Amino acid sequence: MGDRVVVCASYGMNVGANTMTLAAQKIGMTIIPEGKCTFPVRIIKNYSPTGIVGSVFKLLRLARRMESEGIKPPESSIKRLIAGGESFSEEARTYLEKVWDVPVYNTYGSTEGTMCGECIKKAGLHVPEDLVHLDVYNPKLENFIKDGECGRIVLTTLLPIGGKTGNLLINYDTDDTTVVVTRDKCKCGRTHMRILNPQRESETVWVGGFPFNRVDVEQGVFQQDNMDCLTGEYEAFLYGDEDETTLRVRMECKNPESCDNDLIENNFIETFLKYKPGLQQAHIDGTFNMIFDFTESEGLEFYRVKGRPKRLVDRR
């Protein structure tokens, strides 16, 4: 009660902003429906919001704008942040919490399906099982997989007798992947099943028979030692063929002249390959290479392209 929340998700055909607004109003919150995170900083000054809903990168850019106008994010009225709209690495969340000095909670939504939310225990996303049935199938959608294994999210809408819905789903393939963490009761008291932060299947690429996701690239960027030099903005491109593939990672620096390139490169390679033995061997063999570029502010390619930035692009 008494919370004032800025919603930076788009209002329209994407139901995320609308459903979050309706839910927040039902529990007594005041909504500031901005739709984008490019709103004037005076909104923070004048309305003293206690929370903001937006993607990790929108919230980082907002923090930089606030600092440029003399407002330190930790000294603002914000008490918590809700990150959604795209998958993110835990390293990115940790850095965002450091910048704002408030807890960051995760949320996942499918426009066609439902919303899953993280509680204060941060022990997985709660699936609202009274509204939707969530199955996890193997990649070829042939059968179910065991809890703890990664698979594709398939949703079915649940309705009470006489209930209505605008979009009925029956075994709907979301093209997102996740892992069921547990079906046990959470320490927060809820009994929902919990899942890991889903990843977009469309953001997964394969090199030499081994997959990796955009989030894996992001994890390498947001290593703690890197963030003294980097803003967090990045983009990655794949080039080559079946015989030799190159991953080019481009990162935006706060000050390119003082950026410790070697440290960042070593941190990235070590983190990226740590749990990928197949790619690690390909890197040793020379069939999978990584090169790095460091740019000044707004020097990345996606700044010149309209729409949501595409962080991992396969140009093979």
SSE succession:
EHEHEHEHEEEEEEEEEEHEEHHEE
Whole-number radius of gyration?
Answer: 21 Å
Number of domains: 3
CATH architecture assignment of the largest domain: 2-Layer Sandwich
Q: Per DSSP, what share of the residues sits in E-state strands of 2 or more residues?
A: 25-35%
Arithmetic mean of pLDDT: 93
Straight-line distance between termini: 52 Å
Give the CATH topology of the largest domain.
GMP Synthetase, Chain A, domain 3
For the largest beta-sheet, the strand count, sense and barrel status come to: 12 strands, mixed
What level of helicity do the residues show? Answer: 10-25%
The named CATH superfamily of the largest domain: ANL, C-terminal domain
CATH class of the largest domain: Alpha Beta
Class by helix and strand content? Answer: alpha/beta
| Net shape | globular
Number of helices: 7
Please describe the topology of this protein.
Layout: E1 4-7, H1 15-26, E2 30-33, H2 42-47, E3 51-54, H3 56-68, E4 80-83, H4 90-100, E5 104-109, E6 115-118, E7 125-126, E8 132-137, E9 150-157, E10 172-182, E11 194-195, E12 199-200, E13 204-207, E14 210-213, H5 214-221, E15 230-240, E16 245-253, H6 261-273, H7 277-285, E17 288-295, E18 312-314
Parallel strand pairs: 1-2, 1-3, 3-4, 4-5, 15-18, 16-17
Antiparallel strand pairs: 5-6, 6-7, 7-11, 8-9, 9-10, 10-11, 10-12, 13-14, 15-16
Q: Which key phrases capture this entry?
A:
316 residues, alpha/beta, Rossmann fold, Luciferase, domain 3, GMP Synthetase, Chain A, domain 3, 3 domains, 12-stranded mixed beta sheet, 4-stranded mixed beta sheet, 7 helices, 18 strands, 30% strand
